[in-house]
Amino acid sequence: MQTVVLAAGVGTRMWPLTDSRPKPMLPVAGKPLVAHTVDAAVEAGATELVIVVGYEADDVRSFFGEEYAGVPVEYAVQEEQLGTADAVRSALEVLEGGSFAVLNGDALYDVPSLSDLYDSGPAVGSFEVDDPTSYGVLETDDEGNVTGVVEKPSDPPSNLINAGAYVFPEEAHEWLFDVEASERGELELTDVLSRACESYEVRPVAFDRWLDVGRPWELLEANEWKLEEVETRVDGEVSEDAELNGPVVVEEGAVVRSGVVIDGPALVRSGASVGPNAYVRGATVVGPNAKVGHAVEVKNSILMAGATVGHLSYVGDSVLGRDVNFGAGTKVANLRHDGETVTLTVKERRVDTGRRKLGVIVGDGVKTGINSSLNAGVVLSPEATVMPGESVTRDR
Questions:
Q1: Closest CA to 78 of 88, 65, 93, 64
Q2: I need a labelling partner for 239 at 20 to 30 A (CA). Which of 125, 206, 246, 317 fits?
């Protein structure tokens, strides 16, 4: 199955993590987010990959190269971000004739369901949610076939949402050129889906597991999902009196010092160091060349390449960008005392994350002084600084 993977977006809802990298290249369990999408596609039966790139395209190209997991890779460039139909249209010059699949490069899909989608075209991936009002909702007829999509309806026709995975017939090559701009000024791929529904019986293929990774806390959810799949492997240096429990991977070149306890699932990347006397737990990745110092606790977090958490610090349910430096004694709050869920700023608007536990989202190069504290839901811009002893309760 020819598979188009959409990976051209800037990812503004992920800011500040996307300030200098494309959202599909954000790290999830030791590899880029989009690599998990591509892995699932290859396992499900993709015979050719066409990756649509745009923002920071070289990052994507350098990772995948001309072949990935034995499958040839082509690239198409979306010059302007004009919508998903425009992105797929840019891929037509390298697509051969015949049917083809389209996947969002910032979503995770379970392989058996994706394989079912590939075998069922024309088809669209679906996922059942309790509250579909924030999604594109699938309309179906009495036979269960898809008849259309309603975007963010106040009165949803069903609780089946569009999972951003499609198999289109060959005619879609022509339909893509008939798409007109929507009310929000974009060329929408759902218009092509509507054309398919007029000409074919389009099946909604239910995904057993699916995650749209569009906002920072969803990066943590993706990490939690993919770390479930790791198996213990110790290639690096681990002290004799360190304790590794559950699935833990220590890559070659990583160091786990004396007195450290790691309760997996956890991944310690090459060049990273942990300890002495540190505690790492709960779906945590310590990125390449990152450092977790003496008597530090890190829980359910992502430390990107080169991030440092100084001794006597606590980091919980947080994402730290590249080369962040937390001074000794920095404490992250990750729980509201009023029992409410944590809110976070997304595109200049406070959004309910739905998570009772969420710490901070920290851009590249941030530095905190000793004994500083960061409140739950704080976002720190790239290169921001926090003074020693300061308590930060608002974004900066």
A1: 88
A2: 317
This prediction's pTM: 0.94
Query: What's the pLDDT band for 135 if we cut at 50, 70, 90?
Result: confident
Amino acid, res. 218: E
Only one residue has tokens 């920095």, namely: 330
The rounded mean pLDDT for the chain is 95
Decide: 189 and 199 in contact? Cβ < 8 Å.
no
C-alpha closest to that of 157 among 118, 204, 199: 204
C-alpha dist (Å) from residue 156 to 99, 194, 198, 215, 351: 30, 17, 21, 23, 22
Using the predicted structure, report yes or no on whether residue 44 has a pLDDT greater than 90: yes
C-alpha angle with apex 140: 135 to 145, nearest 5 degrees?
Answer: 120
Q: How many CB atoms lie within 10 A of CB 339?
A: 7
Distance CA 374, CA 360 (A): 7
Which residues are catalytically annotated? Answer: 311
pLDDT digits (tens, 9 = 90+) for 76-93: 999 888 899 999 999 998
Phi, psi angles (nearest 5°) of residue 90: -65, -20
pLDDT exceeds 80 at position 185:
no
Number of neighbours of residue 79 by Cβ within 10 angstroms: 9
The tokens for 72 are 């040839």
Q: How far apart are CA 173 and CA 234, in angstroms?
A: 48
Question: How far, in Å, CA of 282 to CA of 76, rounded?
Answer: 38
